[in-house]
Structures are given as structure tokens and as C-alpha cells.
Design a protein that fits this description.
single chain; alpha+beta; three-stranded mixed β-sheet; RNA-binding; cell wall biogenesis/degradation
């Protein structure tokens, strides 16, 4: 899942080397924390959060067969 998130975000940012995805697994969920360069935050979120919503939709769909719920936080 980390590779999927990095693959989606890399073409959107100007500083692809500063993409960091951290995974935290809890009892009933898995939380992914996405960090990018401060200049690229707006590009990842998009106008009115459209790009962030699209990224989350793809990640949630990819993890739909998992028993645990998946969350994506953009820092």
C-alpha cells in the first residue's frame, strides 16, 4: 500500500525525494501518514481537497479486501 501511495503522489510533487509514507497498524485499522515537502502540500491536496479525496478513494478501494479499515492522513 505504501508503494501505491508513493506511485500516485510522485508525479504530483516537485520534490519527490521528500515523500514519506509511514504505516501505523492498530487493532481494527491501518493508518498511513503521508508527508511531503511544504511547497508540495497544496499540490497533493488540490483545490477544495479534490486530489486528496481522489487519492483516498483509490487507497480505500485497493484495501477493500483487507479485514482492517484503511485511513490516509496527509500531513
Amino acid at each position: 500500500m505504501k508503494a501505491l501511495i508513493e506511485t500516485i503522489v510522485t508525479p504530483l510533487v516537485d520534490h519527490p525525494t521528500e515523500i514519506q509514507v509511514e504505516e501505523r497498524e492498530e487493532d481494527d485499522k491501518v493508518v498511513y501518514h503521508l508527508s511531503v515537502h511544504p511547497e508540495d502540500v497544496g499540490k497533493v491536496i488540490g483545490k477544495n481537497g479534490r486530489i486528496a479525496k481522489a487519492i483516498r478513494t483509490v487507497v480505500y478501494a485497493a484495501g477493500s479486501d483487507s479485514e482492517k479499515r484503511i485511513y490516509l492522513d496527509i500531513m
